[in-house]
Amino acid sequence: MVFTKCFLNMEKVMETVYVRKISHHQEESMKNFKPLDSTQCAEIKGFVKEIFDLAGMPEMLKGKDRVVLKPNTVDSRYYCYTRIELTSAVIEYFKALGAKKIFVAENCTQSNFTRLVFEKTGYAKMCKKTGAKAVYLDEGKTAPYEFKKQGTNEDGYDNTVFELSQFVIDYLIKDRDKTLYINLPKLKTHSMGVVTLGVKNQWCFPKQADRKFDHNYNLHNKLVDILSYIQPDFTLIEGIEGVVNGHYPVTAFADECIIPFKVLVGSKNVVGADLVGTKILGVNPEDATHLTNSINRGLSGGVKGFEDIEINGDISSFTQKYSWDLLNRFPEDVRLITGKERWCKEGCKNNPLTLLQTMAYDYNGKGGFTMVMGKGLDKAELDSITGKVLIVGKCAEKEAKDFLIGKLGKKNVYISGACNDLSSSVAAMFHLMKVNPLKYNGLSLFKVLKVFALTLMHGSKSTVPNPLANIIKTV
What we know:
By secondary structure, the chain is α/β, with parallel strands linked by helices. It has 16 helices and 18 strands. It has helices at residues 38-54, 57-61, 84-96, 114-121, 123-130, 166-174, 219-229, 254-257, 270-281, 289-296, 345-362, 379-383, 394-408, 422-433, 437-441, 445-457, and strands at 3-5, 15-21, 66-71, 102-106, 133-136, 142-146, 161-165, 179-184, 186-190, 194-196, 234-243, 258-259, 263-267, 309-312, 334-338, 369-373, 389-392, 413-416.
């Protein structure tokens, strides 16, 4: 084992980041997602125990009534979510230590609901098998909390209050000293947040409807606002494989977007873990503004850069630079009209473009329409639009909605009005591109309805498109 110190300084209290590498990965195309084999699973279990033991986890668990695990299960698309084998190994580790209550908590992305994601990925089955309790944070009681109003524009945030699950309030804020909170992100770049690692993994905590606002140049500030309320005791990044060129890999592009890094990265310091994660991804940490903001706002536990990190392990082999932005591949029969003054990659740019790629290249979605996005739209370009049009984002809605409805008629204009109203964008594209929501979810109608009924019974707070959105225009 190689031990590397970054800028050795004995006067500093260095934060340790543990790095461990598994021996191999599948050699066939990444388009074919495979469960990990027995050797890989054994290595993961061994490394989880080694990392946690070195970090003093048995002592950290003392006096705690429960363990809360937060994997990244944003969606059920392959490689989007934390490998189930890692989460299972973490559960087994804490069970062996005698933990009585272990929770696996998540609130997936807008336009989806967490019970469905857990069902499709196998997380629900895994929780039952291991005895961990699945907690669906998009269900049940919530209470209002306030963002810190760190917006970069003169007026601050559009939305200053968010709803937080009562489970999170009780276990991760009010009764924090009795909870051991383990953050389990996936190693991914992000087309809006640059990287989605430990800090970004907590964006699940606000209610889905609250995430569509300020999902623009203010996103990085809001991520840090959440960190100011909730900090994990330990972050363990799963990088068996990582995602580049965005965060939501198009299966058709998987061999370009899925990289077998074969690595685990762990630390008590979430910013320290994320800095090493960015290094492995080949991303400049300064581009991940939420990490810089975390440091500037005093939420990094003293870590200001790599000079404050001691790496227990070896990252010398990770030298390649990868892009966090989307591949420039979009259907030619979809026209894009964009703002000349502003077109935020964090909102009305890269989320709808990600959807467009997914539906076009993985589900044979049809084109033949126009997308209008951003601020400072050209009037002549708007006047040239014919046929159907999707307006995305609050800026474009303000500038173009009335004009285009007057010109084309309401039936030909689709609106996804907030900076990142993902549910409305999905519903619009289902109808425009003739993509069946059931095929998109990959489960039978019976299974979807059964799981959704349970979600509703438990007080769903999720924002999901109409299951007939491909047939009925709903936005």
